[in-house]
Write a structure and sequence with these properties.
Blueprint (H helix, E strand, L loop, with lengths): L3 E4 L1 H15 L7 E4 L19 H9 L1
Parallel strand pairs: 1-2
Length: 63
């Protein structure tokens, strides 16, 4: 069975696909997700640094 990976909304799709496959006895080799809280986490999200403006972030990134 291949591995699954998803980012953001794709993370939810990968996790749900893995759950569906496991229910049918087909376990993915690995499931990798990023850019989204774990399926059991309620709430969360939001900006990591809400006080930082886009200009401030760009200044930090471009030095």
């Amino acid at each position: 069975m291949p591995a699954l990976f998803g980012h953001s909304l794709g993370a939810l799709v990968a996790a749900e696909t893995a759950r569906m496959l496991e229910g049918r006895g087909l376990e993915p080799r690995r499931v990798g997700v990023s850019g989204r809280p774990a399926p059991g986490v309620i709430g969360g999200g939001g900006a990591l640094h809400p006080a930082m403006t886009d200009d401030h972030i760009m200044d930090r990134l471009t030095g």
